[in-house]
Design brief:
The protein is mainly β and 325 residues long. It has a single domain, classed as 5 Propeller (Tachylectin-2, Chain A), CATH 2.115.10. It has helices at residues 272-275, 315-324; strands at 27-28, 43-46, 50-54, 57-66, 71-78, 85-86, 93-95, 100-101, 106-114, 117-126, 129-137, 143-147, 154-159, 168-174, 185-190, 197-203, 213-216, 221-223, 226-237, 240-250, 258-261, 283-291, 296-303, 307-314. A hairpin with a 7-residue loop joins strand 20 and strand 21 (258-261).
């Protein structure tokens, strides 16, 4: 039987048929980059960002690097998944007691819908040190800050889109203050989104293209074959880092079990907008859209820490590639 996406249909998913014969399961949009430099007043670059279905279109939480170089979070809306109306002011969050939350900085957000609530996770500053921030919203206008699930230092916080065994499940990458030497993906569990524990090592760097570090990308996609986890992997060359994308399948009932993992990358910097920019040679996956009827998948990813792009695939192509590689 062919693998199936578990979830709702999305008939308006942005999608283009394959024209790029690259030997990989993903191919790029002919419209890339879909967001260029200086996309809105006061913002120099939008890149590693998250898009989700919302209403009759899509909502996004963007990483926007301001003209002074400081990263903040911005909201945007789209009818077609390609062009976005981006709010000029950064997101202002409030705490659960109604008082404003003073965000130090915010970057690389992920967004996942659980029930009727959208949860936003991002790299937040906690007394100047990077860790994971967690907030919720129902309308992308009012955001309630829910706290920091883990202590510094940690990045790449990604929440599964439903409870598993009665618990929320979170992916993180514990790190140091910089970018190395820690590069492993961990799981954490919570019954209430407040108290987290039962931390487990999930994956470590394995292949040459990811030998330095790995980190979770979009929210895991539930399929008949398991949870599809797309993640970034980093290798170090004589001219700097190279960020590529890998894939793995996790057990649906126990996501700490890795069923399959790709030996080869699924996407790597090849186009000029991925290779040339503020940080060269980066593809950084942050969100996906899926259509359970057709098996189509649209991937949003950041390029060279400079622009925002789209790539496409289908579930069967990804699964066959991960198992066969």
């Amino acid at each position: 039987m062919e693998p199936k996406l578990i979830g709702a249909p999305l008939p308006n998913i942005p999608f283009e048929e394959r024209t790029e014969q690259n030997g990989l399961p993903f191919w790029r949009s002919a419209k890339n980059p879909i967001i260029y430099r200086n996309p809105v007043k006061g913002v120099a670059r939008i890149y590693n960002s998250a898009v989700v279905p919302f209403g009759d279109g899509f909502a996004a939480v963007f990483r926007g690097d301001t003209l002074n170089g400081w990263p903040l979070l911005y909201v945007g809306f789209s009818k077609n998944g390609y062009t976005f109306d981006i709010c000029e002011r950064p997101i202002c969050m409030e705490q659960e007691d109604g008082k404003p939350y003073a965000m130090e900085y915010g970057y690389d957000p992920r967004v996942v819908q659980v029930g009727d609530t959208y949860y936003v996770l991002w790299c937040d500053g906690l007394q100047g040190q990077p860790t994971i921030g967690l907030a919720e919203t129902k309308d992308f206008k009012k955001f309630i800050f829910r706290g920091h699930p883990v202590l510094p230092y940690s990045r790449n916080g990604v929440l599964f889109p439903r409870k598993i065994g009665g618990e929320y499940v979170l992916l993180t990458r514990p790190s140091d203050q910089g970018h190395t030497p820690y590069g492993d993906i961990y799981l954490s569990y919570s019954k209430d989104l407040t108290y987290w524990g039962k931390h487990k090592l999930l994956m470590q760097p394995k292949s040459s293209w990811e030998r330095l570090k790995i980190g979770a990308g979009p929210a895991p996609i539930e399929t008949s074959e398991g949870w599809l986890l797309l993640y970034h992997g980093v290798t170090q060359t004589c001219s700097g880092y190279v960020y590529s994308m890998g894939g793995a399948l996790l057990d649906r009932d126990d996501p700490s079990k890795v069923l399959h993992r790709s030996e080869n990358y699924l996407l790597t910097p090849e186009k000029e907008y991925e290779c040339v920019g503020f940080v060269p040679n980066v593809v950084f996956p942050c969100s996906t859209l899926t259509d359970s009827v057709t098996g189509r998948i649209a991937l949003y990813y950041g390029c060279a820490d400079t622009v925002f792009s789209l790539a496409f695939s289908t579930l069967d192509q990804i699964i066959n590639y991960i198992i066969g590689s």
